[in-house]
């Protein structure tokens, strides 16, 4: 029996059920057709953020960042590289905390960049400060249970 994973589409917010063994094949959203696990970093707004962190079963790593934050901008390519390396294993997203400060307040975020890893609707771990891709990847592999 194949386990099915719940993935929220970062584009339209639709919840998709994807068999775990289809993740690597590049599943698409049943509603808007956008890729669900492309290895790219999705830019979230608060409704999509909340839906993904609470509903998704596949591990989700969110980068809480802001345009004024130099280390955040420096880390962005490293974050994107780790996202590609973990394609199908975890999804990566980012949210602009300058545009959406209530998200930081609610999560008690005092410094950025901050990465928060979620899985099965729960916060799993946090990683603070700008990190190289290898460290981000190791963090996810170590903290998040492998899908299926
Ligand atoms: Zn969609």
From TrEMBL:
PANTHER family: GEO12009P1. This is Thioredoxin TrxC. NCBIfam families: PRK10996.1 (NF008229). SUPFAM superfamilies: Thioredoxin-like. Keywords: Disulfide bond, Electron transport, Redox-active center, Transport. The gene is trxC. Gene3D superfamilies: Glutaredoxin, Zn-finger domain of Sec23/24. InterPro entries: Thio2_N, Thioredoxin-like_sf, Thioredoxin_CS, Thioredoxin_domain. It comes from Albidovulum marisflavi. Residues 39-145 form the Thioredoxin domain.
